[in-house]
Amino acid sequence: MKTILKLYKNQHNYSLDFPDEVEIVESCTKALKKAKSNISKLRKTDLFIAYQIESTSGDLLYKLPIYPVKRLVQI
Q1: I need a surface site. Which of 11, 34, 41, 49 has the fewest CB within 10 A?
Q2: What is the three-class DSSP state of 11?
Q3: How far apart are the first and last CA of the chain?
């Protein structure tokens, strides 16, 4: 089953449901693997990234947000 993978690069676009990139992936499993691998690469950085996986009919299947980790600055 083909799915739609939406990428959000900032919280404002994510809250408005306005994706930065949209890609059609051949299966939900492949979309999940791609999203999780990209999220794990950016974990513990100051970047925001989020993914939504939808069916081709527009039904939401998964939401994968990752918020930036705020690091404590020690002086």
Answers
A1: 41
A2: helix
A3: 53
- What is the reported pLDDT for 70? 57
d(CA 60, CA 40): 22
Q: Burial-class residue 35 by CB neighbours within 10 Å (0-12, 13-18, 19+).
A: buried
Structure token digits, residue 66: 């990752």
Q: What are phi and psi of 69, to 5 degrees?
A: -85, 125
- Between CA 23 and CA 40 the distance in angstroms is 19
pTM of the model: 0.80
The per-residue pLDDT of the chain, averaged, comes to: 85
What burial class does residue 6 get, using C-beta atoms within 10 Å of its C-beta: 0-12 exposed, 13-18 middle, 19+ buried?
Answer: buried
Question: What is the pLDDT at residue 28?
Answer: 92
The tokens for 48 are 């925001």
State pLDDT tens for residues 27-47: 999 999 999 888 888 777 778
